[in-house]
Amino acid sequence: MTDLDNLFASPFSKVADFAFDENVARVFPDMIKRSVPGYPTIIESIGLIANQYARPNSIIYDLGCSLGAATQSMRRHVSSEGCRIIAIDNAQAMVERCREYLVAQDAMIEEAIPAEVITGDIVDYPLQACSVVVLNFTLQFIKPGERLALLRAIRQALLPGGVLILSEKLNFAEPSTQNSLEELHYAFKRANGYSELEIAQKRSAIENVMLPDTLEQHQQRLQQAGFEHSHIWFQCLNFCSMIART
After folding, report:
1. Would residue 226 be called left, alpha or beta, if left means φ above 0 and alpha means ψ between -120 and 50 degrees?
2. Residue list, annotated binding site for S-adenosyl-L-methionine
3. Average per-residue pLDDT in the chain?
4. What are the angstrom distances between the C-alpha of 149 and each of 29, 76, 123?
5. Sign of CA dihedral 148, 154, 159, 164
6. Residue list for the binding site
7. 239, containing H or E segment
8. What is the pTM of this model?
């Protein structure tokens, strides 16, 4: 049973930077469902997209896997023989719970493709040849100066015809667009039961940790990394998911 996210419900004298610790891991499913518009659709569709591009006997990466929602979706949908998933996250609390969730999934799904969960830093992790890579709301937590190198490493590891699924919160260069979508996002959170205090304190906690880019920045960086084509397949408010192909 998922715990309710009330981490920011009480006032703090000083709001600490957001961290993927045990407290966050405990409430993360509730937090992300109530904070990210369209998240269930993104997760389910990641499995469908991965199934379309996964090559037999290849590796699939879930980089910055958190509790493994994308990994679980791919295990439900990928049907290519011999595939295996390597899920990586640098937060030990998230990794431990992710492993627990995958064990529970094993008990419910017969012959799910193998999945290994590793504690590690995706910035310097040596990627092997692979057919699908998922960065599901992960790149925005990587230092901006390290993002291009990570994407280049992913592009070099992808097999011909391989795909990167990249989900991100977006910034917008045009101020009125940014303000409009930001206010709609806050309205989404209010509709999901978050108070003004919770919204404000969460914003303070995450503003120095999560640094979103514009769509144009993403597209330019993907091109610089060597991807031949990229496009949005889903957007809800200021959240989107893209496909980048080799």
Report:
1. left
2. 39, 64-66, 89-90, 121-122, 136, 203
3. 97
4. 30, 31, 8
5. negative
6. 39, 64-66, 89-90, 121-122, 136, 203
7. strand 239-245
8. 0.96
- Which residue type is seen at 201? Q
| φ, ψ (nearest 5 deg) of residue 35 | -110, -25
- Give pLDDT tens digits for 153-210: 999 999 999 999 999 999 999 999 999 999 999 999 999 999 999 999 999 999 999 9
The span from the CA of 160 to the CA of 139, in Å, is 23
> Which amino acid, residue 220?
Q
Nearest to 171 by CA among 157, 185, 159, 189: 185
> Residue 1: which pLDDT band, with cuts at 50, 70 and 90?
low
Two tokens, residue 144: 């901006």
Residue ranges of domains in the chain, CATH in brackets: 22-27+34-245 (3.40.50.150)
